[in-house]
Structures are given as C-alpha cells and as structure tokens.
Amino acid sequence: MPSISLPPPTPCPISPSVPLPFTLSHGTTTLGFAFQGGVIAAADTRSSCSGLVACPASPKVLPIHSHLVGTTSGTSADCALWKRILARELRLYQLRHRRRLSTGGAAKLLSHMLHPFKGTELCVAATLCGWDGDDENDKQPITDKYENPPTNQTAASDSSSQSAGTAPAASQPSCKYQSSRIIAMLLEPS
C-alpha cells in the first residue's frame, strides 16, 4: 500500500507590500485537562473565517488512537491531514514494536513531523490528550479494543489550552466521545 508522499516544504513569506484580501481573525478555543480519573478534552464546534460561519458543527476533538485524542485549531484541511498522518504513524509504530507510543512520544512525533513546515502557510495547532498505562495488563501486546484500561494518564501538561481569539459563548457542553480514560467535550455555541 503506498504511503502519503508530501512535497518538500518551501517557505512562503508574506510580503508586507501585498496585503491580504481580508483580515484573518481567529476564534477557536480548545482545552485539555488531566485529572485523577483521566483527561478531559474540550473545544468549540464553530468553523469560521472572519464573520462567516462556514460550519456550525465542525468536529475539533478528534480520536487519534485507542489512548489518544487531539483538539485542533487552524485550517480544517491541514488539521484533518495531519490527524490522519499521525494516526497512521501511531498505528505503524504499534504494529512494528508490539506496543503503543506514549502520549508524550506522540506529541514529540507530531512536533518533528511539523517542524520542516515552519515558515510555510501550514496552519495547525493541536493539543494531544491521552493516558499511558503502567499496570501489568499494559505490558502485553495491545489490540484495538482496550479491555483493561491502564491507571496512569498523561497529557502534554496538567492543563493546557490554545486559543486564537476569545472563548465562544457556550451553552451546556455535550459529551461526544468517551473512552475509558478520555472524556471529550464539544462546547455548543449559544
């Protein structure tokens, strides 16, 4: 099966003499929290460009692997592409090494994959939330369905957030994805 081949990155500096056709305004807010029982990932659902709401129900909390979800902010196409690439690389790691990559390892892998595109117009911001097991059940080769959840969770930090603007007005949060240690919430705009 052929893998995705990306062209080498080429820096595209924005010239101050050529103005953009419209002002770029940002407004995505994503949050990740680690607590005793697992991790919580939350994000708004509105996809917009300036004053235009492109999609009122855009998923920004995405399951990546059996132990990992990511919250995304940035260009929808860029975020979707890099989510798929990271999910593929994590699955390949699991098949090659007969164990899954840790949450910190996944974050470092994504960072190393995105670094060559620094200075280009790639627009991806991600918060990875997940847990790493340390009990006896986790030392065995794992499968896609996790029957005995591990007891130790980690996130990139105890609480992290990313915002490219102000937090949206939110009504009651709704739980859209729940695994044994991950609770992902989408904040519906009022």
UniProtKB/TrEMBL annotation:
GO biological process, alphabetically ordered: proteolysis involved in protein catabolic process
Region (Disordered): 139-177
InterPro entries: Ntn_hydrolases_N, Proteasome_bsu_CS, Proteasome_sua/b, Proteasome_suB-type
Protein localization: Cytoplasm; Nucleus
SUPFAM superfamilies found in the cross-reference section: N-terminal nucleophile aminohydrolases (Ntn hydrolases)
Compositionally biased region (Low complexity): 153-167
GO CC list: cytoplasm; nucleus; proteasome core complex
Main location group: cytoplasm
Keyword line: Cytoplasm, Nucleus, Proteasome
Function: Component of the proteasome, a multicatalytic proteinase complex which is characterized by its ability to cleave peptides with Arg, Phe, Tyr, Leu, and Glu adjacent to the leaving group at neutral or slightly basic pH. The proteasome has an ATP-dependent proteolytic activity.
Subunit structure as annotated in this protein's UniProt entry: Component of the proteasome complex.
Protein family per UniProt: Belongs to the peptidase T1B family.
Protein name, per record: Proteasome subunit beta
